[in-house]
Design brief:
Elements (H helix, E strand, L loop, with lengths): L8 H4 L5 H10 L14 H5 L5 E8 L7 H10 L2 H12 L8 E9 L9 E8 L3 H10 L5 E3 L2 E5 L6 E6 L2 E5 L1 H11 L10 H10 L4 E5 L1 H12 L6 H6 L5 E7 L4 E8 L3 H21 L2 H8 L1 E6 L2 E8 L1 H8 L2 H7 L1
Length: about 325
């Protein structure tokens, strides 16, 4: 998982606990699933820079329908995303009615960057003339980037701009500049990133999904493996981890699915063996709740894909939220 989303202490953890930490990142703002997902539109895609490391796409309308999801959100939502959510509310939008879906993009401003910026993309039905009229009434002058008008979202330094009545971007000015450069055709967008677009095609029909690029996938797998990441086998295959995606839903319990794409069956099988070994190691020292979580996790490979699946009930997952497993992840 990208460094920008979590404190660096997670990368140093040597525990199997990170398995559900990745799961929690997807679920931190989610709830019971609706019948159909809101897919990321072409307008939204055009404003996401090419060097994206991770996307998290969430059906926002149903967020408050699941007690389990709300508990997870309260405990696990990273500070950066909490700031974006607060800014969204401060903008005056009724997020429970105006916003259909939210996408958070962690991207590198340049190919050789060692850090990420975070951009928010909201889709829904926005009464842009009324919103702009409210800003004008308060005598709020927009910041101009070419023909794009950016308005402040409260006092936290976040800004918002509307691409059209159904798509808006929000985040810091530094995060919005590259996004608008992509949108205006001055820089490449995710639409020219064939690997990430292919990964998106595999999951975008799901109401809740996330995709990671190669660097983000390698970081995530190193965290999941813990001490096993020091083995020679991992060093030999880590550069062959190409991308990954995961989905989660809260229908009839909690279900999590992670797929890691590799170029061949041997790499996928090696990662499956390493991850199973890490799980068995942690099971020896885990609490009863943590052991139950590991038992509910299956790890396998099919062709060139590493597959991780986690299934549990709402009550069992609520207990897991109270365990040292999650306490370590969120520190």
């Amino acid at each position: 998982m990208p460094q920008g989303w979590r404190n660096s202490s997670v990368s140093r953890t040597t525990k199997w606990k990170a398995m559900l930490g990745a799961c929690a990142l997807t679920a931190m703002m989610t709830a019971a699933l609706p019948a159909h997902a809101v897919q990321l539109s072409n307008d939204a895609q055009s404003a996401i820079p090419q060097q994206v490391q991770q996307l998290i796409d969430i059906d926002y309308r149903s967020m408050e329908n699941s007690d389990t999801a709300m508990q997870m959100k309260a405990r696990l939502m990273p500070p950066q995303l909490k700031a974006l959510e607060r800014a969204l509310k401060a903008s005056g939008l009724d997020e429970s009615h105006d916003v259909d879906s939210l996408c958070f993009a962690a991207y590198r401003p340049a190919a050789n960057s060692s850090f990420t910026r975070i951009l928010g993309v909201a889709q829904g039905q926005f009464s842009v003339p009324d919103i702009i009229a409210a800003f004008n009434k308060k005598k709020v002058k927009p910041t101009m980037i070419r023909a794009n008008k950016l308005y402040p979202m409260g006092a936290g330094g976040m800004m918002v701009t509307f691409l059209n009545p159904t798509t808006m971007l929000f985040g810091s000015l530094e995060a919005l500049r590259p996004a608008l450069a992509a949108r205006d055709g001055r820089a490449p967008s995710i639409q020219s990133n064939t690997q990430m677009m292919a990964a998106m095609q595999q999951v975008q029909a799901q109401p809740i999904w996330s995709i990671l690029d190669q660097k983000g996938t390698q970081f995530m797998m190193r965290s999941l493996l813990g001490q096993a990441s020091q083995l020679a086998d991992f060093n030999a295959v880590k550069t062959r981890l190409l991308s990954s995606s995961y989905t989660m839903n809260f229908n009839n319990g909690v279900k999590f699915a992670l797929n890691v794409n590799t170029p061949d069956t041997i790499t996928a099988a090696t990662m499956s063996s390493l991850l199973n070994a890490a799980a068995m190691y942690e099971k020896l020292s885990g609490t009863p709740v943590e052991k139950q979580a590991i038992d509910a996790t299956s790890i396998d490979s099919t062709a060139g894909v590493l597959e991780v699946r986690f299934n549990t009930t709402d009550d069992e997952f609520a207990s897991l939220l109270q365990s040292p497993l999650f306490q370590t992840v969120v520190k």
